[in-house]
Amino acid sequence: MSEHEQYLAEKEKIDQLLSEGYNIYHAVENLDGAFVEFFHLKSGTKKTLHIRTANARKYFSSIFIQQKSS
């Protein structure tokens, strides 16, 4: 899988969780990528995604900043 295809797959997973009502709760970055925790307010459930591509990391970071500022 090319890096662009991997980015699109990771972006799709992020978008899916956001459309289900999850918000980005916490992120931990390391040399292997980022572990992004999503939290659903109504159900109280958490889900974690391992984001590896740089573009997907930029994508979730911009969403996280938007959520924090609103």
Task: Describe this entry's structure for a reader.
This protein has 70 residues and is of the alpha+beta class. It has one domain (3-69). Helix content is 47%, strand content 33%. It is built from 2 helices and 3 strands, in the order αβββα. The protein has helices spanning 3-19, 54-69; strands at 22-30, 33-40, 46-51. The chain has a 3-stranded antiparallel beta sheet with strand order 1-2-3, with helices on one face. A hairpin with a 5-residue loop joins strand 2 (33-40) and strand 3 (46-51). Helix 1 (3-19) runs parallel beside helix 2 (54-69). It is globular and about 35 Å long.
List keywords for this structure.
70 residues, alpha+beta, three-stranded antiparallel β-sheet, 2 helices, 3 strands, 47% helix, globular
Binned strand content:
25-35%
| Poorly predicted spans | none
Average of the residue pLDDT scores: 96
Strand order of the largest sheet: 1-2-3
Order of helices and strands: HEEEH
Coarse structural class: alpha+beta
Radius of gyration: 12 Å
Major beta-sheet overview? 3 strands, antiparallel
Distance separating the two termini: 36 Å
What overall form do the CA principal axes indicate?
A: globular
Number of strands: 3
